[in-house]
Structure formats: structure tokens, C-alpha cells
Amino acid sequence: MRRNQSGMTLISFVIVAAVVGTALYIGMKLFPMYQEYYAVKTASKSLASEAGINNEQPAQIKQKLFKRFDIGYVDDVKPEHVKIDSVGNGKVMRINYEVRVTMIGNLDAVGRFAIDQPLGGSASY
Question: At what angle do helices 58-71 and 10-48 cross, to 10 degrees?
């Protein structure tokens, strides 16, 4: 009685390894971008929960935000990406920025991020 072998061939193993390797490569390139985004969200939420933040000037608010960014290793957000608007009795901090990551050769991945964080009072948007 003859038994047939079953399993992957070398070609199918190489194809599966290439697909998994590509997915891992893309994940490794994009992970820092999203890690920084969550650091920006965390810094803005912690700033919004600070007592009396609604009564401070926009320049002071930005200064406190960028101190938090220094602690959280946020490099892609610049002062021109942060705007503080008065809405109702409160303020809303709007952070809009873009991150570009080189993937392969001249191909880039671009992430656009927008965060609107109420700072106090009855800021509803």
C-alpha cells in the first residue's frame, strides 16, 4: 500500500513567506505613525483634564501641550498644526497633521490625523 505525501511544496512555502513578510514589513513601517497618534491623543486629553486650562491663553496652552509632546516623543506635530478656537464658553484645541513614511523606493504611505479636543466650559462642536 502506497501512501501519498501531503503538505506544502517549496513554492507554496515561499509564496506564504513572501505574503507574511510583506504584511510584517508594512506593519513595522506604519506602527510608529499610529503610536505617535495615540501619544498625541493622550497628551491632548491629559491637557484638557487639567484644572483651569480653559482660562489660559492659547500660547500657554500650546506651551503645555508641547511639553507633553516632548515627554511622549512626538516629533511630527509642529506649532502650526495646533489651533485653539473659542467655542461657546470653552475652547477647542484642533490638531491637524500629516505623517509621510517611505515604504519602498519612491512609494510613501501618508497618514492624515485630526484631533478635536474640547478644553473646558461648554465647548461643543
Answer: 140
